[in-house]
Structure formats: structure tokens, C-alpha cells
Amino acid sequence: MSHQMIPDDSRVYCLYGFPVSHSLSPVIFNHTFEKVGINGNYLAFPVKPENLKDAVSAARALNFSGFNVTMPHKTRIVELIDEVEPSARKIGCVNTVTSNSNGLVGHNTDGEGAARAIRAYGFDPKDKRLLLLGAGGSSRAIAQTLAPESDITVLSRNLEQARKIVDSTKGNGRVSYGHLTKGRFEESVTTSNLLINATPVQTVSLLKTLGSSAEKLPLGTWVFDLAYDRPLEKLPEGRRRISPLEMLVQQAALSYEIWMQRPSPFQLMRSILVQHMGQDWK
Predict the structure, then answer these.
(1) Which candidate, 32, 66, 270, 279, has a CA 20 to 30 Å from the CA of 254?
(2) The pTM is what?
(3) For 11-108+246-277, CATH number?
(4) What's the pLDDT tens digit per position in 234-251?
(5) Which is the catalytic residue, given 35, 48, 53, 74?
């Protein structure tokens, strides 16, 4: 049996979440580190909620250079680190942590990652109507980022969380909210240019649970499912898709910039993921 050791002088980065078996982040980062000559390793650790505090303590004890945080830890992590960047503090969620002289410092790349992914497809959100499904951390971040230029409607089964998104963006854009029901969805989507689904269930399946159908999406509507843990469901003809893989690699690039304090080799990172997937998703 062979054993692989991480060299003493290697930088260690990781992902904390549960589950993480579907994560493509190790593929992106480890190949990028190798190509650009960074002595680093990126690992994915399945961390249950009750073990998150111990995982953060381990990151300190083992002197990790940084780590990403995914579901279900993006809110709880805020209270376990030393400092939170102001925009992430306003959102109340962190998904990227770096270790520096101030200790463990939290950032949020969800909003900027989504905005970059959307624009990569040639969609300009300025003065467009966006329908945002779900009211979790990703939704809050995306609303904060896009509210100054877009008209956003947030629909969620959790009205209190949706209301908080609206409250957090007051004075910074046009955001409304409502209950995620068949009737409210079908009413809202008729005037929407882009549907952003930040729930764990992909759009086609989610609409079926509401008693609706993806056929209700107007022709030409863009659909952006954030979940990538399973193959994307087929949309009806005439609807356009923004792939969550584009957001994934945009966020990886943002994490790289936070950790390394220099521009990311974005095209390299994207090409690594394209090669791993066997085709471009655009």
C-alpha cells in the first residue's frame, strides 16, 4: 500500500461542506497549482454541521492557507472566524476564508461569481427583470450584487427570509418578494428576462412540485440553476441556459485572487474544467 504525504512546505487549501463528493473544486485548484508552479494542495472534507467548529480549529492548528465553505455551513461559519469582510457581513454568509495576520478572514464570492457567469453568456442584467427563487445565502448575495442595476423579484417558501433580502437591499435597488407558489411564479415569470434558481432542486423538477411546468417559461427566457450536483435537466425548446459550471469556475478564480492576492489565471482554470468535463458547457 502506498501513502502520499503532503510536503511540509506545501500550502494547504480545502473545502468544508456536506456532502462534498460531487465537488469539482479539487480538480480546478490542484491542476491550476501544478500548471502555475504553486506548491499547494486542495482537499475536500465532508464536514457535518456538528463538526464545523472542530474543522475550523483544525484549519488553524494545521496552518491551512485558506478554505472554501459550501452548504450547509455558509452562515454558521461567520461566528467561527476572526473577521468578516464588510459585504459578506451584510449578506451574513461566507464561502471563502483566507488566513492572514488578522487570523481567519471571511469573504463571499456568490454575488460576483454569479454576475460574472451571467455576463459571460452575453446577458447584461442592467435594467432587466430577474426572478430569483430561494432566499438562502446565495440568493442574498446575488440580490446585493445585482439590485443596483436590475429589477428583482424574490420568491421563496420562507417569506421571512425573502423579506430580509428586500430589507437588506433597501436604498440599493428595486427588490420585491413573495411566496413561491404556482400562481405567484406563473405571474412573475411572464415579465422576467432571467430566472435564477438558488434552491437545491433544479428548475424543471421544482416547477413540477409547484404544479406548474417549465413550458410556462416565456420563449427566450434565460434559466440559471445554481446547483451542479447532478446533470442539468433539459429545458423546453426556445429557453436559454446559463450553466452553474460557469459560476463555479468564476468563483474559483475569485477565491484564487483572495488567497494569492494577485489576478487569477482564469482562462487556464476554465480550460482545466472544460477538459475534465469533456466539453465546453457554453
Answers:
(1) 279
(2) 0.93
(3) 3.40.50.10860
(4) 999 999 999 999 999 999
(5) 74
